[in-house]
Automatic annotation (TrEMBL):
Coiled-coil annotated spans: none
Full protein name: NAD-dependent epimerase/dehydratase family protein
PANTHER family documented for this protein: BIFUNCTIONAL POLYMYXIN RESISTANCE PROTEIN ARNA
Domain NAD-dependent epimerase/dehydratase: 3-211
Pfam (any one): Epimerase
Length: 339
């Protein structure tokens, strides 16, 4: 099949591109042209930006594809442009949404798609805008019977990503564990979560292409390994051969320390992240999780060391300051207890 990926070189979309190619599809990638892919010559490349809607529509005029996978729509106007550009010319549109688009607290645990409402608090724009995008797409499904498939990843890590850890600091975690420096964890670290890796998630998108069972449907696609948040750093310690020093801080205090950096903890990750994959396995039988948390972190470490990653000095200072505050507070509590 001829598949167009809007994006195609990101953490998740690069895995989708490669898996589509391996499955024998003819793949066209549309993006700004700032990144490449392995075996780049096997793809058709279109350089552009959806931010310039008129130019985007001219570039796509007359083009025929069997499916379009949109990885770069983050709100209703983005999705509307994709729908209006390809309506009537492409049999299937597949959109990447997010598990953050579910309203918290959940109604079900593990989460079931059909039982949940969508996020409705504009205070967390990422989740709110994705939810609004989905509401628009669902209206097109109802009113036009448009063949739209929506995939909702939860927290997903992968090569090229900069979102690992509480501070989204990536390589800093490895450095701090090796140096015996403390790491900040939100809450008590015991909240259940399923950590997913991009090579597994990509199977959901590839399995949806041309799959009529997925038309008009929304799915989450996550790991099924039941872990808690402390395990993220504990597994790093096992891989590196050093026990991590984990400092637990309340989420509301972290939010006050840096509202932009820690909003994802307050609005999304303060609730258990366990998802029921029964629906996607029913319609996409090839969706099977193969990477454990340790497997995925080893993959990340291989990437860090192969590319010689550097530290995020700003986040290093912030983590030092936060753990120092915790240390002072702990001493004061001990003194209060002794008095």
């Amino acid at each position: 099949m001829k598949v167009l990926i809007l994006g195609g070189t990101g953490v998740i979309s690069s895995q989708i591109s490669q898996q589509l190619l391996a499955a024998g599809h003819e793949v066209t990638v549309f993006n700004r042209g700032s990144k490449s892919l392995p075996d780049a010559g096997q793809y058709e490349w279109i350089v552009g930006s959806k931010a310039d809607g008129e130019t985007f529509q001219r570039q796509m005029a007359g083009r025929r594809f069997d499916a379009v996978i949109d990885m770069i729509s983050f709100n209703e106007p983005d999705a509307r442009l994709t729908v209006e550009t390809f309506r009537g010319r492409v049999p299937q549109l597949i959109f990447c949404s997010t598990g953050a688009a579910y309203k918290r607290p959940f109604r079900t645990t593990p989460v079931k798609e059909e039982a949940e409402a969508l996020f409705d608090d504009p205070a967390f724009p990422y989740a709110y805008d994705k939810a609004r995008m989905e509401l628009y797409l669902q209206s097109r499904i109802r009113e036009e019977n448009l063949a739209v498939t929506i995939i909702r990843p939860s927290l997903t890590y992968g090569v090229g990503g900069a979102n690992l850890g509480v501070l989204r600091q990536n390589y800093n975690i490895v450095h701090r564990i090796r140096q015996g420096l403390p790491l900040v964890m939100f809450g008590d670290g015991r909240l259940p979560w399923s950590f997913t890796f991009a090579p597994d998630l990509a199977k959901a998108f590839v399995g949806a292409v041309g799959n009529e069972r997925t038309y008009g449907q929304a799915y989450h696609a996550t790991s099924e390994e039941n872990r808690v948040w402390d395990d993220l750093y504990g597994e790093w310690g096992q891989i590196l051969g050093a026990e991590p020093v984990i400092v637990h801080l309340p989420t509301d205090l972290l939010l006050k320390a840096d509202p932009d950096l820690f909003a994802h903890l307050h609005y999304e990750k303060s609730y258990a992240g366990l998802f029921d994959n029964a629906k996607i396995k029913r319609d996409i039988p090839d969706f099977q999780i193969s990477l454990t948390l340790r497997d995925g972190l080893r993959m990340m470490l291989d990437w860090y060391e192969a590319e010689g990653h550097t530290l995020d000095e700003g986040k290093m200072r912030l983590e030092d300051e936060l753990t120092a505050i915790h240390s002072r507070w702990s001493r004061e509590m001990e003194e209060l207890e002794l008095s």
